[in-house]
């Protein structure tokens, strides 16, 4: 101890403090730069989209959002089917993925025997690492033929009275795209939900069990409500991915600019249209229209995220946990 | 206020410097081969990309001239050529009048090879017989007006084939493509209704059917759905052994798409002596011409500012129209240019200039 003190004698305490202050300042500067880089990037992004889409905004205005003609030859563009397709395919994905992934997460944290937890969690997370083009190929060669020969005819025969499940079965369709999206966003929702559930204090479960609740009741009434805002956050993460997914969707959705009630019919999404047409857009207005689509997609993402944040805030109102990210 | 802005500026400057240091290390400077002339860059059509890559490689081996080609699509090729960011462009559809105006007509279309579009289908009931289709029928199928395989016009054109009472599933390209350009060019010539309702472009407002991404996307949907019909490039259909239809040409004969019948289409087209080569050879008049054929073009400047580059480019073009280079095209299933076209192209190449002077 005394030896150590002697060796530091050469540097005076004041100098040491000054050194630390300089270090702090550099550190703070670096962090500020890092933090400012993101808003700056976002600003450039929005500006670029806006300036690229100006001719289309000037020509079509808000009609762009409410009309359905997409005719590159006549330079007439309306993005309603794309907006519809983006929202509907993401909605289908959520309807399928949310119960499934929350179920898996509850199982893994509350019910699964110890040795099973890690492998299953690992496998689900592995799904998140697969590139989307691989999902697309798998969808083309495996999922589509399977859906066309089994699930789709089944839905048409049993639920065919609904307009949703009528019409010709092509395979490539809105429903197929929704299903592939569901598979793709599941790992995100599942792993975040699992983390959130795992962080619920054990006392919550114990209290419920002590009151005579079954394990199911304990999970459903004590654990899940406690983690509610975190789960909503997980769903938003999944939704964000579904809204922007491009490759797998364009390979399976059928790419048709049309709004049809049937989920068996082909549709189109904003991201898929940009990916398909951007490289070969031959007129300036076509370019501008695609940039406008990108701007709208950006806007839709912002609005959906804002609504979801609002939802979290409402859900967690009065709670100490969660929702602080607003 | 100003401090964060300054910081951002500094960061960007640092990033910019970092970026600026890399290229000289990774990529040789623009004049790597002193004796043979300058390196060239080009960008454009994806369809002829394989043969261009082969040619540029072979030419580099022979002469040391380096030509970098990026297959970013015809639209991008025209755009980059117009902006002057590349030495030459490449496109599957000729430049339109307003695009020509954007470069003050300062462009030469040089045809390189030919391609064709075939109608591929999947109809188990028809058996192994090759179906026969005529232009107006194809147009009406893609307009969504003929919806059944046993339509009387299909039956009439295919005697002896049992066509089922089955829905036709139409598949088209969803991405903008030269293949769609050639196909819609043909349909516009054949069907007045197509011309007014849909028109001719790299991507159009398809009145019917599903969109597949790329040749492979169309092929997948056709292969997997009984009753489907789509269109793909000839090369793609040949190398993937798809079943495709014979198409009736302007003389009334049903023609099997092949390299020979595509070359025949170009040979039967008439060219004015001062042609700018922006010539469509769909629905060509020859007796054995396959009607859905087209050139693909390189876009070059008739007078290049850089003398060394002009020399390199002319050297390559001279070599490209030799039998040796055109034979390579046939090996990769591109239809070679017919002799009369080669003669015309040679004339144009000889008239090329660099820095205002003829190229020696």
Q: Characterize the main sheet of chain A.
A: 2 strands, antiparallel
Average the pLDDT over all residues of chain B and give the rounded result: 85
Distance between the termini of chain B: 62 Å
Reading the helices and strands of chain B in chain order gives: HEHEHEHEEHHEHHEHEHEEHEEHHHEE
How many angstroms separate the termini of chain A?
49 Å
Can you walk me through this structure?
The complex is a heterodimer of chains A (326) and B (360). With 326 residues, chain A is mostly helical. Chain A contains 13 helices and 2 strands, in the order αααββαααααααααα. Chain A has a two-stranded antiparallel ribbon. In chain A, a hairpin with a 4-residue loop joins strand 1 and strand 2. In chain A, helix 8 (202-210) packs across helix 9 (215-226). Chain A is flat. Chain B is α/β, with parallel strands linked by helices. Chain B has an 8-stranded mixed beta sheet. A 3-stranded mixed beta sheet of chain B has the order 5-9-10. A 3-stranded mixed beta sheet of chain B has the order 12-13-14, covered by helices on one side. In chain B, strand 1 (40-44), helix 2 and strand 2 form a beta-alpha-beta unit. The longest helix of chain B has 25 residues, at 2-26. Chain B is elongated and about 65 Å long. The termini of chain B are far apart. The relative contact order of chain B is 0.16. At the A-B interface, helix 2, strand 1, helix 6 and helix 12 of A face helix 1, helix 3, strand 7 and helix 9 of B.
């Amino acid at each position: 101890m005394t030896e150590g003190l002697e060796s530091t004698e050469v540097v005076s305490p004041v100098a040491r403090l000054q050194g630390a202050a300089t270090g702090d300042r550099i550190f703070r500067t670096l962090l500020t730069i890092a933090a400012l880089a993101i808003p700056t990037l976002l600003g450039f992004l929005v500006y670029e989209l806006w300036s690229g889409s100006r001719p289309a905004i000037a020509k079509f205005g808000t009609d762009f959002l409410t009309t359905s003609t997409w005719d590159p030859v006549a330079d007439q563009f309306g993005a309603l089917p794309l907006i519809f397709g983006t929202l509907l395919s993401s909605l289908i994905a959520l309807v399928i993925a949310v119960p499934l992934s929350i179920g898996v997460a509850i199982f893994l944290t509350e019910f699964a025997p110890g040795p099973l937890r890690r492998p299953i969690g690992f496998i689900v997370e592995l799904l998140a690492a697969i590139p989307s083009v691989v999902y697309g190929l798998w969808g083309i060669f495996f999922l589509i033929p399977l859906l066309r020969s089994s699930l789709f005819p089944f839905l048409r025969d049993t639920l065919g009275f609904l307009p949703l499940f009528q019409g010709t079965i092509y395979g490539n369709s809105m429903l197929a795209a929704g299903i592939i999206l569901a598979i793709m966003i599941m790992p995100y929702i599942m792993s975040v939900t699992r983390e959130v559930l795992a962080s619920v204090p054990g006392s919550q479960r114990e209290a419920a069990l002590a009151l005579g609740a079954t394990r199911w009741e304990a999970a459903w009434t004590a654990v899940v409500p406690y983690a509610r805002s975190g789960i909503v956050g997980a769903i938003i993460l999944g939704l964000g991915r579904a809204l922007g997914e491009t490759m797998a969707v364009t390979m399976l959705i059928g790419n048709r600019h049309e709004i049809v009630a049937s989920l068996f019919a082909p549709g189109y999404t904003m991201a898929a249209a940009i990916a398909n047409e951007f490289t070969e857009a031959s007129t300036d207005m076509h370019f501008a229209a695609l940039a406008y689509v990108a701007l709208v997609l950006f806007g839709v993402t912002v609005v959906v995220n804002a609504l979801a944040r609002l939802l979290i805030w409402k859900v967690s109102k009065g709670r100490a946990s969660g929702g602080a990210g607003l | 206020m100003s401090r964060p802005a300054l910081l951002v500026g500094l960061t960007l400057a640092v990033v910019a410097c970092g970026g600026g240091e890399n290229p000289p290390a990774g990529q040789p400077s623009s004049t790597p081969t002193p004796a043979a002339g300058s390196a060239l860059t080009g960008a454009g059509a994806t369809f002829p990309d394989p043969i261009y890559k082969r040619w540029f490689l072979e030419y580099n081996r022979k002469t040391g001239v380096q030509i970098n080609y990026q297959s970013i699509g015809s639209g991008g090729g025209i755009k980059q050529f117009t902006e002057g960011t590349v030495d030459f462009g490449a496109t599957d559809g000729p430049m339109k009048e307003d695009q020509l105006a954007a470069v003050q007509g300062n462009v030469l279309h040089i045809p390189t090879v030919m391609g064709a579009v075939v109608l591929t289908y999947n109809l188990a009931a028809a058996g192994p017989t090759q179906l026969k289709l005529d232009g107006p029928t194809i147009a009406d199928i893609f307009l969504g007006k003929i919806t059944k395989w046993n339509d009387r016009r299909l039956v009439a054109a295919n005697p002896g084939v049992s066509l089922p009472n089955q829905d036709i599933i139409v598949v088209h390209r969803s991405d903008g493509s030269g293949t769609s350009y050639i196909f819609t060019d043909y349909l516009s010539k054949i069907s007045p209704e197509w011309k007014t309702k849909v028109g001719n472009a790299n991507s159009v407002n398809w009145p019917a059917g599903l969109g597949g991404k790329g040749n492979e996307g169309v092929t997948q949907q056709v292969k997997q759905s009984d009753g489907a019909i789509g269109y793909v490039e000839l090369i793609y259909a040949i190398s993937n052994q798809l079943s495709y239809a014979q198409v009736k040409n302007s003389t009334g004969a049903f023609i099997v798409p092949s390299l020979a019948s595509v070359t025949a289409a170009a040979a039967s087209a008439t060219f004015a002596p001062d042609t700018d080569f922006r010539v469509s050879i769909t629905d060509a008049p020859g007796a054995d011409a396959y009607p859905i054929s087209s050139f693909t073009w390189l876009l070059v400047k008739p007078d290049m500012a850089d003398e060394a580059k002009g020399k390199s480019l002319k050297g390559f073009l001279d070599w490209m129209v030799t039998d040796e280079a055109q034979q390579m095209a046939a090996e990769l299933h591109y239809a070679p240019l017919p002799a009369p076209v080669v003669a015309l192209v040679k004339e144009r190449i000889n008239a090329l200039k660099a820095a205002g002077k003829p190229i020696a």
